[in-house]
Write a structure and sequence with these properties.
By secondary structure, this protein is an all-alpha fold. Among the domains are: 252 residues, no CATH class; 72 residues. The chain has 25 helices and 3 strands. A 3-stranded mixed β-sheet has the order 1-3-2, with helices on both faces. α2 runs parallel beside α7 and α17 packs antiparallel against α18.
Length: 472
Amino acid sequence: MTTILLKLLQRGAALLVITQILLPVPARGFSIGDERLLGEKLLFAVRKNFALLDDPDISQYVNGLGRQVLEAAGPQYFDYHFFVVKNDQFNAFAAPSGLIFFNSGLIKTMKSEDQLVSVMAHEVAHVVSRHISSRMAKQTKVTALSLLFGLASLAAGDPALTSGLFTGALAAGATAGLSFSRQDEEQADRLAFDWMRSTGRDPAAMEEMLKTMRRITRYRSEQLPPYLLTHPNPEDRLHYVQSLLEQEGRAAAGQGGKRGDRFAFLRFKHRVLSESLNPNEMRTWCVGIIASGKDAEEVGMARYGLALLSAKEMDFSGALRQMEQVRIELPGREILDIDLAVLHLEAGQPAEALKLLRPAFKRDPGDIYAAFQLARALEQVGDLAGAERLHLETAKALPDYAKIYYELGRLKARQGQNGASIFYLGKHYLHEGRIELAKQHLRRAEKDQTAPSALRQEAKSILERLKQLEDA
């Protein structure tokens, strides 16, 4: 085990910090309360050790889809969190209490929003059915500690290490540990199929994703993708889903009023890949789509990807030209106004950004992406109070988004409110999973009489909760 952990560190994957707050929960008698407690602990570790793509735009989209699945699934025991992980491995997985992860490498293979929802529904079904917790409860050697090691290996993106960790840490048989059984997979696929059908999505997207999984498995027969270490038997799953489609009638299965938003999915996919692929790979991918010229919407969104790439390379004039072209080719897509405004902000042109952001926010005050970017623009032109108000709205909508507390801390420091600044920096560290730094700042904030009483009380409450987690 020690050798494996050293390999993880050598490969640059930050090992999950096993402090008091991350002590294992006993596996035997794994109740709903145990699972909630473990999920709360895991959430801190996840934020410290996974490269999450959780800016307001990406988070708003993927969690919005998650809410659609959960509405179909019915009342839940847990508060679900949906994450996109910067990792080129073909992988998605669920952890206890509703933590659902999608690797950027998996998203790259997807063709439609329905395919994304099909994987999402399958992972939610594992949580709803409590497959992970039931397997932990059956194994005396499967504890929160071994689960943390398993998640660390998944974060590392190394299938060989993942396999070693699951074999060594869990020390379980072929159908034990965190590897789902055939019965688990059939139950999850059945639930996902029903939820997709009830929401008007096409369950055939499940078949498409399983065919992709089978193809990748054949091309990589010497090295299994991480997904297959916890989701075995893709061939059996494919046959089962195909039988469901035949029973329902393929045409009837795909009927429904609400279908996937192709533009929204393509935009999400390009944003994820622009943060995940190296620049040359991203450029080659986008240029290839443009050269094919097969689909106007895909070509337009490939230009969108090139605009994002130009901005990352600090070519803001090129990025602005590309984005303007996208708006011409795809008229009526109001979110592109916000994207153009972001490029103006990056180029140091806040006045131009405000011309686009103010009407965008007025159209939809609930759009957290617009609110966050408008706050950035207002800060750049000196309206700190307006920026603070919008950042607080973002924090309310995305309470686990670490960067928003950093922005609030910085704003408060500019306003000379050091006690409040220390408090928000403490929350920033908390949601990054840097627990000791969070404690230091929150203790200072709790004692700082210059901080508002509400913030001092919140700091006290957070510290008490952290203590409860340590003692649990």
